[in-house]
Design a protein that fits this description.
The complex is a heterodimer of chains A (567) and B (68). Chain A is mainly α and 567 residues long. Chain A has 25 helices and no strands. Chain A has one domain (19-565): Up-down Bundle (Sodium/glucose cotransporter). The longest helix of chain A has 39 residues, at 166-204. In chain B, α1 (4-28) runs antiparallel to α2 (42-60).
């Protein structure tokens, strides 16, 4: 029986030494200490929910980036790099940088000067209560469910990598997050996200350094990958002419119009989980600089995520397999590539730091989800729909209780997923339904003054329903993917791109048609909310090299050069 | 208010000292099972680098009493 168990469940990947355990425990002690230290600075609504709107550009920018740099993200994309090669970098470059710069220069001024607490809050100001209600309820619901799914997935990873009990991982991490967010609010979450940013780089940067040394440099690495996989594994664009010329089964239309123009724009500019960090900036210049700083660092994240996956292809002695095959055979899956590379190069101490980086990534992601949920519940659901006459103190208390309840719902979801694994796929799919249409609604609201409340509401609703419809169609009949992605050669990832593109277009078309048929708002009502009717505040009389637009140009130039270099 | 950069400095400093210590111990007492590229002693130089950066951050952003 024992032998059978060992066959089905792979032995733990790494063993922690005493010094590794000390490093992990020190991390938990430090984040709790930060929470206790900040508890006296979260007494008003502005403090608890918006971190006092006093974050510098650097703190807001690193936090903005960290909220997206979770442990599952790191391990998942390193696995994708092993599976698909350097194509996975598109999710870090064209699938992020243009959207971050667009947020900084075009959208941030509207979010910032409207003084909204949230993205649903902006929809209320621009389109009215129905649009806010749809957006807020769907966001709050999905955020805690996603948090629970991630919690279970991370506990599973800790079980496989370290042999930790799943219940132990779930409760220790969730209680720690509950304590420090309840005490310090958004400020505490942001502080810990910036701390996590440094831990991730300190814990993960050694892998590409030592890996490239072992592989004999980038040129030799490319040769080894070409021998073990394919030459297309190290090209970003040259294989995207058709679905069959690259390992991902996607083409450039899906990447440029689906990923870059819709999914990435939707995620980075309207997902409140990340936008909330920027809204906490201390002034308009910081609010514009923060996403640019985030974009500057985002360009180099592939060093610690994609490169380890590529190095795994070249230097690991074993062949990694899909998750389903790994579960049946006891082999290592693609997603194990990062822990395997960590165990390959990191001795006592360094291993503890790497594991701490993964735990920190998970916990800060959860804190991000919980703090965003708390704000949207309190300001966009509880206050307008349930109790609009509470004092500021009352809403802060509601925020603290909501934090605890949000964590408990997440824990409940994690246990639900443990019993019914297929829930995970449904929850992840559900989350993607809202992003693309929401971007259509927000961007039309900001740039087109003729867009009306009914137009925004119905556009958002129809876009979301069309996304659900396409997903259900392909779920019921997998061959329908050829119609959604416009090719019989399209693979699963192509579905996400094209589904987002069509649902965005449905949202835009319905919004435009309904808006033209309904009564527009007056210019006076739209002042401060729409381009052309709003005086965007100046960043001040500062030298060119301090202006956001200058640094956005620098980031854009580096982005172009990198894409050409790895064409 | 204590700067966020001070907390980061403390984190890098403590982790750096622990990793440097573990690296030096391994240098003088080589383990039976060694990681790949053990001969580069990454723990020593990476731990030292973190200690230096963490030390500088901790000192530069340490809490100071406001002058009256």
């Amino acid at each position: 029986m024992t032998n059978l168990y060992a066959f089905i469940v792979p032995a733990r990947l790494v063993h922690l030494s005493a010094v590794d355990v000390v490093i992990v425990v020190f991390y938990f002690a430090l984040v709790l200490a930060i929470g206790f230290y900040l508890r006296g600075r979260a007494n008003t609504g502005e403090d608890f929910f918006m971190a006092g709107r006093e974050m510098t550009a650097w703190v807001a920018g690193l936090s903005f980036l960290s909220a997206n740099l979770g442990a599952l993200e790191l391990m998942g994309w390193a696995g994708s790099a092993y599976q698909y090669g350097i194509l996975a970098t598109h999710w870090y470059w064209i699938g992020a940088i243009p959207a971050m710069l667009f947020l900084a220069l075009v959208m941030m001024p509207f979010y910032y000067i409207s003084k909204t607490h949230s993205v649903p809050g902006y929809l209320k100001l621009r389109f009215g209560e129905p649009a806010r209600a749809v957006s807020a309820v769907s966001f709050a619901f999905m955020t805690v469910l996603m948090s629970g799914v991630n919690m279970f997935a991370m506990a599973k990873v800790m079980q496989i990598v370290l042999g930790w009990d799943i219940n132990f991982s779930i409760w220790v991490s969730s209680l720690t997050v509950a304590v420090y967010v309840t005490l310090g609010g958004l400020r505490s979450a942001i502080f810990n996200e910036v701390l996590q940013f440094f831990l991730i780089w300190a814990g993960a940067l050694l892998i590409p350094i030592l890996g490239l040394y072992e592989a004999g440099g980038w040129t030799n690495l490319k040769l080894q990958i070409a021998q073990r996989a394919s030459d297309q594994y190290v090209h970003l664009w040259s294989g995207l002419g058709s679905f069959t010329d690259n390992p991902m089964g996607i083409n450039w239309i899906g990447i440029v119009f689906g990923l870059a123009a819709v999914i990435s724009m939707g995620y980075w500019t309207t997902d409140f989980l990340v936008v909330q960090r920027i809204l906490a900036a201390k002034d308009i210049r910081s609010a514009e600089m923060a996403p640019i700083i985030g974009a500057g660092f985002k360009m180099f994240v592939p060093l610690i995520v994609i490169l380890p996956g590529l190095l795994g292809l070249a230097v690991l002695p074993m062949k990694l397999v899909p998750e389903s095959v790994a579960a049946a055979t006891g082999m290592h899956s693609y997603n194990d590539v990062l822990p395997l590379m960590l165990a390959r190069y990191c001795g006592p101490g360094l291993l503890g730091l790497g594991i701490t980086a993964l735990i920190a990534g998970f916990m800060s992601g959860m804190a991000g989800n919980v703090s965003a949920f708390t704000t949207v519940w309190t300001y966009d659901i509880y206050r307008p729909l349930i109790n609009s006459k509470g004092t500021d103190h009352h809403y802060v208390n509601m925020g603290r209780w909501t934090t605890v309840i949000g964590v408990l719902i997440s824990v409940g979801t994690a246990y639900l997923v443990m019993q019914f694994a297929s829930i995970m796929d449904y929850v992840q799919a559900l989350f993607s339904f809202f992003i693309a249409p929401l971007f259509g609604t927000v961007i039309l609201g900001m740039l087109w003054k003729r867009a009306t409340g009914p137009g925004g509401f119905l556009g958002l609703l129809c876009g979301t329903l069309s996304s659900i419809g396409m997903w259900a169609w392909v779920k019921a009949d997998p061959s329908a993917l050829r119609y959604v992605a416009l090719s019989p050669h399209a693979k699963a990832l192509a579905q996400d791109m094209f589904q987002a593109l069509w649902s965005f277009l449905v949202c835009v078309i319905v919004t435009v048609v309904v808006s033209l048929a309904t009564k527009p708002k007056t210019d006076a009502e739209l002042t401060g909310l729409v381009y052309g009717l709003t005086t965007v505040p100046s960043v001040g009389d500062i030298p060119v090299y301090q202006k956001p637009v200058f640094w956005a140009g620098v980031v854009a130039l580096v982005f172009l050069i990198l894409n050409i270099l790895f064409w | 208010m204590v700067s966020i950069w001070f907390f980061i400095g403390i984190s890098l400093l403590v982790n750096g000292v622990l990793i440097l210590g573990a690296g030096l111990y391994e240098y003088w007492h080589p383990p039976a099972e060694q990681v790949v590229l053990y001969n580069l002693h990454a723990s020593v130089w990476w731990g030292a680098l973190m200690t230096l950066i963490g030390g500088w951050y901790s000192y530069h952003f340490k809490p100071r009493q406001k002058k009256a």
